[in-house]
Amino acid sequence: MNKKRITRSIAACVMLLVMVLGLAFEIAPTPVQAESLKDKLASLKEQKKELDKEIKGLESQLKSNLSDMKEIVEQKNLIDQEIALLHQQYTNTNQNARLAWSLDEIDKD
b/e for 16-32, b at 16 or more Cβ within 10 A? Predict the structure, then answer.
């Protein structure tokens, strides 16, 4: 019985070793696979460079847009001020017209 156990254990270890070695050879890249991986890596690095350039371009465009936006906000503020002044001028003119009308009415009486 003891010999059976030892034989089974040895057989199991040998099978395990065969499986592990089989996996190791399957996972390990061959020279052709290594070259293909190097090509893919080079391609990915080139893509990264291109993406970095695009990102820098977009960042530059964003800065430009923010600058334009600041100018637009400043123009809007100036227009708002002009509207407020025109409103005051309208109110003043309206008050002058009312006073003039009131004076005409007083003079008629």
Answer: eeeeeeeeeeeeeeeee
The SS3 call for residue 109 is coil
Residue recorded with tokens 């993406």: 51
Rounded Cα–Cα distance for residues 85 and 104 (Å): 28
d(CA 101, CA 103): 5
* pTM of structure: 0.45
Mean pLDDT by 10 residues, the chain (109 residues): 80 83 68 77 94 93 88 94 96 90 76
| DSSP structure class, residue 30 | P
Helices (H), the chain: 2-27, 31-108
From CA 65, how far away is CA 26, in angstroms rounded?
Answer: 54
Q: Within 13 A of 94's CA, how many CA atoms are on the CB side?
A: 6
Q: Which residue has the tokens 């309208």?
A: 90
Do 29 and 37 contact (CB within 8 A), yes or no?
yes
